[in-house]
Amino acid sequence: MQFKNIIAQSGVKAKIIQAAQADRIPHAMMFIGAEGAGSLALALATAQYINCDNPGDTDSCGTCGSCQKNTRMIHPDVHYTYPVIRLKPSPSPSLSYDFIEDWRREVQLNPYLSINDWLQSIKAENKQGNITADECREIIKRINMMPYEGKYKVQIIWLAEYLKGEGNILLKSLEEPPSNTIFILVVEQPDLILNTILSRTQIVRINALEDEDIIQGLTANHEVDEKNATNIARIAEGNWNIALSLSHGETSDLAAEFSNWMRMCSAQTKPTGESSAKLVEWIDDFSKVGRENQKMMFKYGLIFLRECLAIKATGSTQKISGDEMKLATAMAGRLSAEQIENIVLLITNAHYHIERNAHPKILLMSNTLKIAQAIMGEYVPTEPEV
Ligand SMILES: [Zn+2]
Fold it and tell me: How far is CA 195 from the centre of its chain?
């Protein structure tokens, strides 16, 4: 991975390169950034840069033997730890390396991947990923071997929050790693990281991408026109992973699809044979568009409802116009803030469950009926569903 292939983040890139050129790369860094900001991509580019045979002022050379091995993620001195699931029926503990082929494939395909993308790719289904105590002991073993060919031995820990309490096993190594060993911990939720670990690393904050960065990235390299890219940027909210998956789908239809769904929810407040048949037909169709597209519509819905709440609170919003504005104004007029918030809760739940492989037909039907209840002011959120 080269820095030039990473969207924006010029400040962080410059800082890393400067430190590397001055031979002052901290031995333990924590890249903290929200999903889709590019923290893992930056960690990979850093590993490649510091082991490059001909590093330039802005990037690794991309062509030396070390760069080529880094590109293919087979450099013998660059190690990856990431959450995995327990392999069955193997009695031995699951280590990151057990999934290295999947890891190389998925990360090369998309270094902005989310934990859910990753877990689904290794067929975790509803299992949570984990970085085990055994993996920590493997890390210690690895970093205590001499580097094979690189200047530095690099240990990247993707989503170090999954270490949980096991992180304590690494404290001594993080504090005093063997010479020429660099830890890069990539973290999305720093509040889940033990203080003892936080205090032993140099924090590097990775900002979420600006809308302009996403628009630029999409129009320059992904054949998306300006108008569509602007729409995508608004929904992606700084997350390049979401922007990419939206760019593969039919985003222009998201607004239409969502308002169609809201109309059907509304019709279910006084269901007729005809409206129910239409709903069943729509659910049938929409359950076939794929999980990513379903998630995107829910995500769009959450952003749309936030605008409804803004209209309720302030009487206007700058962020939407046209048909979206008409629907948002109508919903803001008809529903109380509490009712809108209940719908937000229901759609958040739908997103959560579809991500975890819930059956889309059942989920859509039950959500539609609950949203109809919410529209009638009869929905009472009982269980803390997420
Ligand atoms: Zn190179």
Answer: 24
The secondary structure of 228-251 as a DSSP string is: HHHHHHHHHTT-HHHHHHHHHS-G
User: How far apart are the CA of 49 and the centre of ligand 1, in A?
Assistant: 7
Taking the centre of ligand 1 as the mean of its atom positions, its distance from the CA of residue 2, in whole angstroms, is: 9
Give me ligand 1 centre to Cα 55, in Å: 6
CATH of the domain spanning 3-208, picked from 3.60.130.10, 3.40.50.300, 3.30.160.70, 3.90.226.10: 3.40.50.300
CA of 61 to the centre of ligand 1 (A): 4
184 Cα: distance to centroid of ligand 1 (angstroms): 20
Which amino acid appears at position 279 of this protein? L
- In the chain, which segments carry CATH 3.40.50.300? 3-208
pLDDT string in tens for the chain (386-residue length)? 999 999 999 999 999 999 999 999 999 999 999 999 999 999 999 999 999 999 999 999 999 999 999 999 999 999 999 999 987 777 777 899 999 999 999 999 999 999 988 988 998 876 788 999 999 999 999 999 877 787 899 999 999 999 999 999 999 999 999 999 999 999 999 999 999 999 999 999 999 999 999 999 999 988 888 888 888 888 888 999 989 888 876 555 788 889 999 999 999 999 999 999 999 999 999 988 877 778 888 988 998 899 999 999 998 887 777 788 889 999 999 999 999 999 999 999 999 898 888 899 999 999 999 999 999 999 888 765 55
Residue 67 CA to ligand 1 centre (angstroms): 4
Tokens of 204: 């590097």
d(CA 50, ligand 1 centre) in Å: 9
Compute, in angstroms, the gap from residue 69 CA to the centroid of ligand 1: 9
Protein residues with C-beta less than 5 angstroms from the ion ligand 1: 52, 60-61, 64, 67
Question: What is the 57 CA–ligand 1 centroid distance (Å)?
Answer: 12
40: helix, coil or strand? Answer: helix
